[in-house]
Task: structure prediction
Amino acid sequence: MRRSARDTTMQITEDAPLDRLNTFGVPARTRWLARIEALGELPALFADPRLADLPVLVLGDGSNVLMTRDWPGLVLTIAADAVSSTRAADGSHRVRAEAGLGWHALVEWTLARGIIGLENLVAIPGRVGAAPIQNIGAYGVELDEFVESVEAWDRRGGGFVAIPREACGFAYRDSRFKSEADRDRFIVTALNLHIPPGRSLRLDYPGVREALDALGIETPTAADVARAIAAIRRRKLPDPREIGNAGSFFKNPVVPSAQADALRARHPALPSWPAGPGRTKLSAAWLIEASGMKGHRDGDAGVSDRHALVLVNHGRATGTELRRVAERVITTVRERFGIALEPEPRIV
Ligand code: FAD
Ligand code: EPU
Result:
């Protein structure tokens, strides 16, 4: 049943499937599904008496969620995708993008206008609105470096707000928006980025220079870096259009450096990176592979045989079956290395 409110493009559907709204492709339903085309429709949506007091889950492309049950309230998707930029006298750019724009489309939009900075974040799936939730990052760059403010609808106060970067609590794969206190409070409506001038290209992440060499490029442009990184990503990560997945299922664990040193003394091949004073980040993929779990499969739920950090749906796995595989990985790595892995996606 579809009911469209007059004078708006808002669509509200009762009892809708979410199978195509999660890149794991697991079955799930929601009591209500709403899609808004314009941000100005949000006040009317929340004034709808059918939706009052229901739990709200915002979804972009569902590339970082695992649905293990039906959603008892409202799932909201945002299609508003306007983007614009201004250039300041110092050569910096301010870019404003609405939540429904594809993240990769935004990266391409900036590169096409000679705006340099987002190239290492090329080809990350999902929408702009989800990008600040886990502070997306890849190939040595994290989103928060560019965030000036996050525009949102505050469900607590019932109004539009702009949250400056300092108040977003960004960290590795984390933000205020994921915190217990504020989870599902803010519906991100737009992102304001500030991209400084004269930013040099970041080529230090292992494999980037090699990928540029493979393309025969000696003096890369930002667009070349994007092309090289997109090629690495295609090689390393399974494509959700071919096999259901949500990218990395676990965060790389950040541990006290003394613990990392002790582990590395026993396992010199374990990749690790400095992660602030006295802290070291370890490669979860390496820990999983060394635990013998890469390629593990239980029915249609499994660990990718291409990248150990990625859980995959070989066909008809359910969210519960995938969660069981995740638990098995966590237990195996804890028993073998004494390290507690944490899931990265939102588990519903
Ligand atoms: P969804 O999965 O729909 O939502 C993710 C979370 O954000 C949920 O909690 C949801 O409620 C919340 N959310 C979504 N939109 C909004 C909104 N407008 N307001 C409030 N909350 C919202 N991530 C990286 O950081 N780096 C990578 O390199 C990377 N590679 C990936 C590769 C693959 C193959 C895949 C499948 C995923 C990868 N990811 C990566 C994870 C994913 O792409 C990002 O987390 C992305 O930002 C999710 O976008 P989405 O629109 O699909 O969000
Ligand atoms: N590795 C293994 N086995 C594997 C895969 C990788 O041992 O099966 C080792 C590699 O040899 C390498 C190390 O793990 O030394 C790191 O691998 P990779 O460069 O693929 O990066 P990652 O740490 O596994 C992180 C992000 C990715 C992001 C890449 C590139 C997290 C949780 N994941 O993966 O993000 O694209 O770095 O920056 O931080 C995502 O969040 O969904 C995601 C894909």
Notes: Residues 319-337 form the longest helix (19 residues). The CA atoms of residues 136 and 143 lie 6 Å apart. The longest strand covers residues 186-195.
